[in-house]
Amino acid sequence: MFNTSYRTPPQPNSVFTRNHLVTLQSRILIGTKMAVDMSSPKAKQVQDLIKSDKVVIFSKTYCPYCKLAKEVFEKIKEKYTVIELDKRDDGEEIQHILGEITGAKTVPRVFVKENCLGGGSDVKLLYEKGELQKMVA
């Protein structure tokens, strides 16, 4: 009654499958890792941005954790410089550079006195412990 036969999937040695895998691998690599030249003018610009103010937040306008980080600094009435990466043509490049500097490409990346505190949850935790207020003093 039922057809129990099945079709064998293409074998890895077939041309289609090899080409498909190479394309897929390329897309994954391009999406996850970008070569970063830390001596480039853009990397210097990012480092200068980090030094430009006591509090610098690299953010994206739609990110809830970015909003959280900004709200924490507003609660303690601390001014900050925000760089909205999704509003810049070079935002992705800056994010990759931040990944090299901090070890994390996620946003926000929050810097106080040139030290990376981490992201929104990290900033909130420091605030709740009373440590953030001391750091910005």
UniProtKB/TrEMBL annotation:
<feature type="domain" description="Glutaredoxin">
    <location>
        <begin position="55"/>
        <end position="115"/>
    </location>
</feature>
<comment type="function">
    <text>Glutathione-dependent oxidoreductase that facilitates the maintenance of mitochondrial redox homeostasis upon induction of apoptosis by oxidative stress. Involved in response to hydrogen peroxide and regulation of apoptosis caused by oxidative stress. Acts as a very efficient catalyst of monothiol reactions because of its high affinity for protein glutathione-mixed disulfides. Can receive electrons not only from glutathione (GSH), but also from thioredoxin reductase supporting both monothiol and dithiol reactions.</text>
</comment>
<dbReference type="InterPro" id="IPR014025">
    <property type="entry name" value="Glutaredoxin_subgr"/>
</dbReference>
<dbReference type="Pfam" id="PF00462">
    <property type="entry name" value="Glutaredoxin"/>
</dbReference>
<dbReference type="InterPro" id="IPR011899">
    <property type="entry name" value="Glutaredoxin_euk/vir"/>
</dbReference>
<comment type="similarity">
    <text>Belongs to the glutaredoxin family.</text>
</comment>
<keyword id="KW-0249">Electron transport</keyword>
<dbReference type="InterPro" id="IPR011767">
    <property type="entry name" value="GLR_AS"/>
</dbReference>
<keyword id="KW-0676">Redox-active center</keyword>
<comment type="function">
    <text>Has a glutathione-disulfide oxidoreductase activity in the presence of NADPH and glutathione reductase. Reduces low molecular weight disulfides and proteins.</text>
</comment>
<dbReference type="InterPro" id="IPR036249">
    <property type="entry name" value="Thioredoxin-like_sf"/>
</dbReference>
<comment type="subunit">
    <text>Monomer; active form. Homodimer; inactive form. The homodimer is probably linked by 1 2Fe-2S cluster.</text>
</comment>
<keyword id="KW-1015">Disulfide bond</keyword>
<dbReference type="InterPro" id="IPR002109">
    <property type="entry name" value="Glutaredoxin"/>
</dbReference>
<dbReference type="GO" id="GO:0034599">
    <property type="term" value="P:cellular response to oxidative stress"/>
</dbReference>
<protein>
    <recommendedName>
        <fullName>Glutaredoxin-2, mitochondrial</fullName>
    </recommendedName>
</protein>
<keyword id="KW-0813">Transport</keyword>
<dbReference type="GO" id="GO:0005737">
    <property type="term" value="C:cytoplasm"/>
</dbReference>
<keyword id="KW-0318">Glutathionylation</keyword>
<dbReference type="GO" id="GO:0015038">
    <property type="term" value="F:glutathione disulfide oxidoreductase activity"/>
</dbReference>
